Amino acid sequence: MSQNPRDRTPFVAPAWVLELSGEDLAEIFGATTLSRGRAYQRQGRVHALRVVDNELTALVQGTHPYRAAVAWDPFEADPAIPDDIATECTCPVGEACKHAAATILEAQTVASGPPGPPAAHGTGTVVPLPTRAAPAPSWEDLLAPVVAEVQPSSATQTTTAPLALHLEASRTTTRFGSDELRLAMRPMIRGASGAWIKTGLSWPDLQYADHGRRNDPRQRSALVALMRAHQARAPQWQRLAETIGADALGPALWPLLRDVERSGVALVTGYQGKERVHLRSEPVEFVLDVTRGAGGQLLVRPVVDLPGAAGLELLGNPAHGLVAKERAELHLAALARPLTPAITTLLNARELAIPEADAERFLTHYYPALRQQATLRSSDGSVELPEIGPPRLGLEVRFLDNHVTKLSWSFRYAVGQQVHTVPLLRGTENVSRVVRDVGGEEELLASLDVLDEAPGLRVPLPGKSRLGVVIDPVLWGWATVQFVRDVLPELQERDDIDVTLIGEPLVYTEADEAPLVEFSTRDLDEDDLLAGADGIREVSPDTQDWFDLGIKVSVGGQPVPLSALLTALTRGEEQLLLPDGTWFCLDMPELHTLRRLVEEARALQDEDRGESLRINRFQAGLWEELVSLGVVAEQSERWQRTVGDLLALEELPHPEPPAGLTASLRDYQRDGYQWLSFLWEHELGGILADDMGLGKTVQVLAAAQRAHEQGLLSAERPMLVVAPTSVVGAWVREAERFTPGLRVVALTETVRRCERPLADTIAGAHIVVTSYALMRIDEQHLTPLTWSAVVLDEAQAVKNHRSRTYQAARSLRAPVKFAVTGTPLENSLMDLWSLLSISAPGLFSSPQRFGEIYRKPIESGSSPELLGTLRRRVRPLMLRRTKEAVATDLPPKIEQVLPVTLNNAHRRIYDTHLQRERQRILGLLGDVDRNRIAILSALTKLRQLSLDVHLVVPDAPESARPSKVDVLIEQLVEVAAEGHRCLVFSQFTRFLKIVRERLVAEGIGHVYLDGRTRDRPRRVAEFTDGDDPVFLISLKAGGSGLTLVEADYVFVLDPWWNPAVEAQAVDRTHRIGQDRTVMVYRLVAQDTIEEKVVALQEKKRDLFAKVVDEGGLMSAPLSADDIRGLLEG
């Protein structure tokens, strides 16, 4: 072993080298290769041993110097696993060679010697060679491999032993029991006698250049490539066999054999390789020769251009080559294309005879399939083989009624004079022998870009389409138009598409004129008006308000079915087709409005009447919007007299105030009187919703006086006024004052307590006034009577349509009913429905339908556009004026919040209860409706604690005195000293009494009124006619029926989340007759629930104003979010 004299650095072997055992090395290299490597190591052939980045390298002297490298994968856990060792060498073998084995053995030998000095740092370590010194290779030895690579092949041939490949064909039975042709191959070498011998040469030996004989590297490389290809494909047990089988290589056999032959390796067969093997340089192909035999039958024989064809055998499964024996020689050829099992079976049959009777069927059904897999010819010209054309598309178009078009696609193949039709989708044929050109079909389908011009022709649905082309589409309506106009002409012009039309397409044209909409109303038929019970037929009052609504649409004189128009609009279609092919655009706002209005009209009917439509005379707003879209063709006289005049009210002559009215009406009051008079005259009810303090009572009395003078109101049919108990007396006084010619009777006792018939009590009265409580109790006595009119004052009392009070009011019999209230909405849109269902029955349908159509979408905010629709429907039947708009001479009202700071003791008690109640309330919010009473009770407790803790905690210390009372007393003393008079409101009468006690203690004069006060008029007179500066009033008692313009200061001690309640109380003084600025102070305890209530008030007040005055959203009951907001902070 030699060494480099310039590098004496000691070698340090990697740990993995030392852990490789002899068994590991034998597994890596094999026993033979390892033995040869050990000989090389002992002979000192390993030089320049290094370790670089965990890789062991060396220069090993063989026939030529070779560079060997060995490495271990450091990411594996076990360095002793042989599979983790990789080897590489520049020798012909390339890997796992004796040079790599010698490198490892040398490293182990050097590492096991005496330790040397520490290795120097660097990229590698050079092995010191202290023993078994051998001469270093000379310069000629090092350059010899370079010269050898450029030596002419003739020189190589003169110094190497030639190689041969022995091939032997034989039949063998596979382990699956089938009989197959096997082509066995093994290497041979020229022996000393010149004969081909196999002794001393095996497939593994080819990996080594010095297996004992010198071979041509090109020949050896070609055979090694063949061997390695076999090893990559064959099972493990076949890899080191003496012969290798061509069956494992498949079609890859043929290029490998040609490479072997081109390298100079002789292809031989027979004993000692004495016979030649002829390898066809180009692939061959079977030809099926079709000739006509005796009797007209067709004979199909496989023919191939190959010597020895008589002994022809197929190689491989599927067959990819041919093997033929001619005398002792073999002829081998690759097939131009592998054979399918079916063709292989056919070829093995050698000859196929087809009777003359089946000849035509063979040529039309079977010949195309054979032609796809083999070449056919008629060598003697006795059979004319048909031409097969490329695929064509077939399209059958069937035109049906109502613009329905059915299409059916197929492919058509011409075989000679016959044409075969196959479905568009492959695999759906019942029986078909046509071999389909899949590529040609898909190329045709891909060229149908024109199908994108009409919907329904391209849909990528598995099983329903191919390449997106729908197999059997059905087109409807406008899709038919687009197909006929944009698609069909181009398809008919194509040379590769056969279009067949069944029926004639219409000529589709756009209408020259816009649609004309005509409306009409008609009185219901007698059968509709009559309702029978026990055989008695009488006019139903409910049906008298209804009319048949007719809607006709036409284009150019051609009628347009309304149902088809509405359906198309609902579906969002852009055009509508008429039966004759005329079409018009639906993108017109008027048509979409028509659809919406018709849907609304249907929804307002409580029962489904199919295509027929009805409209109620209270639905004047709906009719007004309808006729704005077209023309009125016909109107019922009764409809025109009521609805027509109502919509044109401003253009009608305005009646003068009645002679019997002693009041002087303001301009807006005159308008209200005229509006009420018109409704009364036409038996239409409505809502007078003027702001509080604008004199709604006198407007109603003026209308009643006119009705009396026109004969619509009499002592036989008086007007019934239902009002809160506290207001009954005010109605009597106002009527006696402004309509002295009308006799007024107040019902202050129940019929039972009065002990006389109701008819006797009201005999001779023109106006009867009762309370809501008595109306509910005496419903059975009031309902049978017929009133000229019913007036519901402070009509919010009937806002709950589930209450007995509402039911009683609804059951009263009168041709006209009026709801009078300054707050038509308090909690929900259902409040408005309740009032209108009494005053204008039929304007809206059932509460459930109204909730679905209006309340839910509007209150949720999902359909804000419905707000405008709702206001338009209500507008003709609800009159509302605000003080700001009409009472310009009314002095201003200034409102502000007066913050109150709780004292320390009050604060501690409030905060303690706040935390407790907050947790309790938040736990109940999961089901607000079910827990509403408990939630409101807890919130009320917090509001009371904000006022005075003693209202909730009677034994609270005196130090927790109510700061709000102190602030109030200071204010009252100051304003009273300046000559002002004050109204003080609170919802809690107990707190009012605490305030009263302080007023007494301070010597401030006052009057007290709550719901339990019996002589209400006397207490009111004490304040209005007296000098006391303060009037203490509970919100319930002072919310209605009072006119207290003598006061100009208002103090609200506890805010309530329904601002309408407070507004009613405040407007007791800010109303007609007030000539001073009204100051309103809301005392609010800081950092308490009262601040949250004020914020909620502002939100609700804004929303309330929008629906009543501006068409926006209205207030709703306390929601879970509202309650959470009250408890925040």
UniProtKB/TrEMBL annotation:
Keywords: ATP-binding, Helicase, Hydrolase, Metal-binding, Nucleotide-binding, Zinc, Zinc-finger
Residue span, Helicase ATP-binding domain: 677-842
First and last residue of the signal peptide: none
GO molecular function, one term: zinc ion binding
TM region positions: none
Gene3D superfamilies: P-loop containing nucleotide triphosphate hydrolases, Tandem AAA-ATPase domain
Record-annotated Helicase C-terminal domain positions: 968-1124
Residue span, SWIM-type domain: 66-108
Protein name stated in the entry: DEAD/DEAH box helicase
